[in-house]
Write a structure and sequence with these properties.
WH-like_DNA-bd_sf, about 90 residues, globular, DNA-binding CsgD family transcriptional regulator, Arc Repressor Mutant, subunit A, Tscrpt_reg_LuxR_C, mainly alpha, DNA-binding
């Protein structure tokens, strides 16, 4: 499945259809967390985190998880600032 990134960014915001948990899971992946670590942070099972990420990926019409994270960053759904960089 190929996603037109421009269409994904300009269409009706996909994030209005994403749950808070899906957004939290995408944010943790963007921060470099492994699924097990994300599950521990969110007090969920690894399987639940995986399901949240797959659901978010489908809603964003992303071809893979990294594409979903990239789209989420582009549309301002998740923060992509580096917490280790000085402000």
């Amino acid at each position: 499945m190929k996603t037109d990134t421009r269409r994904a960014i300009e269409r009706e915001p996909a994030f209005s259809f994403l749950t808070d948990r899906e957004i939290q899971c995408l944010q943790l992946v963007a921060e470099g967390k492994r699924l097990d670590d994300a599950a521990n942070v969110l007090i969920m099972s690894r399987e639940e985190v995986d399901m949240m990420l797959l659901s978010a990926q489908a809603k964003l019409e992303a071809s893979n998880l990294m594409h979903a994270v990239s789209l989420a960053m582009l549309i301002g759904l998740i923060d992509h600032s580096d917490p280790h960089q000085p402000k």
